[in-house]
Design goal:
This protein is mainly β. It has a domain at 7-62: Roll (SH3 type barrels). The protein is built from one helix and five strands, in the order E-E-E-E-H-E. Strand 3 and strand 4 form a beta hairpin. It is globular, with a radius of gyration of 21 Å. The termini are far apart.
C-alpha cells in the first residue's frame, strides 16, 4: 500500500484528478477536512482516505500556481480598471503619487 499521510496544508490530487488541500484533521472523530481548489469543503473519514490510497486514487501534488480557484470574484466586480501600465521608479518616498 502506498502510504501517504494527510498533512494539514499539503495539497493532493484525487481520483478524478481534482486538486484539494487538507485543512484540518480531527483525530478524535477520525476525520479529515479537505478543501477543493474551487473552494468546496468536504470531510473524509480515515477509512475513506485509506481506501482511496489502496485504490491509488490519492497522490501528493504541488500547490496550484493560480490561487484564484476558490475566489469567486470577477475583475469587473472589483470596481476598478486593471491596465498594464508601466510604473515609474521613485528615488524617494516624497516622489510617490498620492492616492
Amino acid at each position: 500500500m502506498n502510504v501517504i499521510k494527510p498533512v494539514v496544508g499539503q495539497w493532493y490530487r484525487g481520483g478524478t484528478n481534482e486538486l484539494f488541500e487538507v485543512v484540518a484533521i480531527d483525530d478524535q472523530d477520525e476525520t479529515i477536512e479537505i478543501q477543493y481548489f474551487d473552494g468546496t469543503v468536504a470531510e473524509m473519514d480515515f477509512d475513506g482516505w485509506n481506501e482511496q490510497l489502496l485504490d491509488r486514487l490519492i497522490d501528493v501534488a504541488d500547490p496550484p500556481e493560480d490561487w484564484s480557484g476558490a475566489v469567486d470574484v470577477e475583475a469587473e466586480d472589483l470596481d476598478r480598471d486593471f491596465e498594464d501600465t508601466a510604473r515609474t521608479e521613485w528615488s524617494t518616498p516624497q516622489q510617490r503619487p498620492l492616492r
